Amino acid sequence: MLSVTDLDLFYGDARALDGVSLAVEEGSTTAIVGANGAGKTSLIRAIAGILRPAAGSIRFRGREIAGLPSHVVCDLGIGQVAEGRQIFPSLSVRENLEMGAVIPRARADAGRSLARVLSLFPRLEERLGQAAGTLSGGEQQMLAIGRCLMGRPELIMFDEPSLGLAPALVQELFRTIRTLAAEGMTIILVEQNVAASLKLAGRAYVLENGRIVLSGTGAALLDDPAVKQAYLGL
Ligand SMILES: Nc1ncnc2c1ncn2[C@@H]1O[C@H](COP(=O)(O)OP(=O)(O)O)[C@@H](O)[C@H]1O
Ligand SMILES: [Mg+2]
After folding, report:
1. Residue 82 lies in a domain
2. Is the dihedral of CA 144, 76, 152, 161 positive or negative?
3. Within a domain: residue 180?
């Protein structure tokens, strides 16, 4: 569904991605693991069309998308739940959700999408008229995911979705991601909870200093001595 080949990305002279290649199969969950500063967010932002790579290719359903503007990428069916959630705090929950459906691919189905999001997150239904900034951290994360789903994505990229959530909410978040995966959603997952993300992932990649240094099935990486030592504290 998605293939990234030899991707290079720079901030000025500083290289953030160095020859990154990966493949994401339709309907699979792919984990990207790496320390702070490894380049995970840069990779997601390059795929989303927010950052322009210096070289390399990003193909989605056979079409080259590297360098396309983010609204075009979004309209092709690639959604992201960005690091830090990025909801609009002064707008209501309903308005935040509706903003997710402004792209052409999603507009006509906005009503159905809203019903689906509210059945996934009943707590949001009780708070539709409330300013999004008054939601708890966990509810804001639900809203960010809900807004992404309103765009009817076929591929969702999650960037550190559990960051700052209490343990019970982290469990709930992983349940939500598993539900989406079970419904056939294609998922790219970047997570501090490395063990949990590898358990979910059919395939996983380890990013270090902008390079993919290891890849394999989630189960194989969970069992890899280098991964255990560096990311699982074992
Ligand atoms: N806007 C930016 N300007 C300059 N350097 C950046 C910027 N964003 C990230 N970087 C640098 O790029 C590298 C990769 O960062 P990032 O993709 O955010 O990593 P991760 O998400 O894995 O923590 C880091 O060295 C980081 O300092
Ligand atoms: Mg990051």
Report:
1. no
2. negative
3. no
